[in-house]
Amino acid sequence: MASNSHVRLALAINVDISFLKSVSSGTLYATVKELDGPKRLGAYAVLVSDEQGHTGASFNGMVHRKKQTLPLCNIRASLP
């Protein structure tokens, strides 16, 4: 979702996921940091943690942004 927040269609070109700990119950939270964007390439780092703040997974990804806009781009214009 973060990679498509710039209205342009973003396609994954590289993805790396590391599962650090199993979680069998409770709520998981994902925190994303946009490392580079909104140029043609976007890089992202995501940490997934449990309710106690322990990291369960790490995700790094890179996307290529196309010139094509997303079909719901007019909705984003109304968001804060």
Explained architecture:
The protein has one domain (2-68): Hotdog Thioesterase (Thiol Ester Dehydrase, Chain A). Strand 2 and strand 3 (41-49) form a beta hairpin. It has 80 residues and is mainly beta. The protein has one helix at residues 73-76; strands spanning 8-19, 29-36, 41-49, 55-69. The protein has a four-stranded antiparallel beta sheet with strand order 1-4-3-2, with no helix packed on it.
Q: Can you give me a brief rundown of this structure?
A:
The protein is mostly beta strands and about 80 residues long.
Give the count of helical stretches.
1
Question: What sequence of helices (H) and strands (E) makes up the elements?
Answer: EEEEH
CATH C-level label: Alpha Beta
Helical amount? under 10%
Write down the overall mean pLDDT. Answer: 84
Quickly give the structural class: mainly beta
Number of domain modules: 1
Rg over C-alpha atoms, rounded to the nearest angstrom: 15 Å
Spatial shape: elongated
Task: Give the uncertain stretches in residue-range form.
Answer: none
Please give the CATH architecture.
Roll
Report how far the terminal alpha carbons are from each other: 16 Å
Query: What fold name goes in the CATH topology slot?
Result: Thiol Ester Dehydrase, Chain A
As a percent range, the share of strand residues is over 45%
The main sheet comes to:
4 strands, antiparallel
Identify the notable features of this structure and list them briefly.
single chain, 4-stranded antiparallel sheet, 1 helix, 80 residues, 55% strand, mainly beta, Thiol Ester Dehydrase, Chain A
